[in-house]
Design goal:
The protein is α/β, with parallel strands linked by helices. It has 2 domains: about 45 residues, no CATH class; about 220 residues, 3-Layer(aba) Sandwich (Rossmann fold), CATH 3.40.50. The chain has a 6-stranded mixed beta sheet, sandwiched between helices. The chain has a two-stranded antiparallel sheet with strand order 1-2.
């Protein structure tokens, strides 16, 4: 990360820490205390030890509060599940001294808190999460473009949504965020019923974002539904891989604690690879 104060994350710059990075040739002006005299004894050349610098993290969470996030068939809606994930991430970030903020978006930016490192800021984030209610259409695309420009310093952008939007529009968003050097993590939240589509009798399907309702016999449309959904999810995952985004597809019947632990383990492994 590229923070401005000392923290717990690996920095893009070299500095002082206990984590060895590499050797480099000595140049005039280097601190003589950093010369590795054992390497000099072996090679008769001066080498300087470089270490990883430690810095703080700036985390910007984006919570989709559009109408489709209200859906839930297993006792918990997608937005309630997203609130649990966002709350856990905010708590962890604040506890280790990182700056965290949140934006709630639907047909407009409903609420926004800029990233801060103050521990008291956590209560304000929890208040925003508690008050967030799903309604209206989603304007996630223009909000993400705005966020890419408004967050000047490289940050971790974490997005919670079902992403029921045109894939090409989303691709432009993520490419814009990556162009601005942001690190992106996506949690795509899906309800098990959205994946299984196990309806047995004719019924009326309502658009939770305000569109027209559709009366249909599930036995006649199930195959086409699964084909369309599989195409959408496949295209979305491919887009995530091509844009270098940390992507997590989550169903709301899985414990959010497990999802969060898997996310942390994945981030840890990616840092070791780096």
């Amino acid at each position: 990360m590229q923070g401005s104060v000392s923290g717990r994350h690996a920095s893009a710059q070299r500095g002082s820490s206990v984590e060895f990075a590499e050797y480099r040739r000595y140049v005039q002006g280097d601190d003589l205390r950093r010369i590795d005299w054992r390497a000099f004894g072996r090679t008769d050349r001066y080498y300087v030890k470089e270490f990883e610098a430690d810095t703080n993290l700036r985390c910007c969470m984006v919570l989709d509060t559009s109408g489709s996030m209200e859906f839930g068939s297993k006792g918990i809606s997608k937005i309630e599940y997203a609130k649990q994930l966002a709350g856990a991430l905010a708590y962890l970030a604040v506890q280790q001294g990182d700056a965290v903020g949140i934006s709630c978006v639907a047909d407009e930016k409903v609420a926004e808190l800029p990233p801060r490192r103050n521990p008291a800021h956590l209560s304000a984030i929890f208040d925003v999460l508690e008050q967030a209610e799903p309604q209206g259409e989603t304007r996630l695309v223009p909000i993400l473009h705005e966020l890419a420009e408004s967050v000047a310093q490289r940050a971790l952008i974490v997005i919670f949504s079902d992403f029921f939007l045109p894939t090409e529009e989303l691709r432009d968003c993520f490419e814009h965020l990556r162009f601005r050097k942001h690190d992106i993590t996506v949690f795509q939240l899906l309800d098990p019923m959205e994946l299984a589509f196990e309806f047995q009798r004719p019924m009326r399907f309502l658009d939770m974002e305000g569109g027209p309702s559709v009366f249909a016999d599930p036995t006649e449309i199930t195959d086409r539904y699964h084909e369309a959904l599989a195409t959408f999810l496949s295209d979305f995952k491919k887009m995530m891989l091509e844009s270098g985004t940390d992507y997590h597809r989550v169903t709301t019947d899985v414990s959010y604690e497990k999802v969060f632990m898997d996310f942390l383990a994945c981030r840890h492994d990616s840092q070791r690879v780096r």
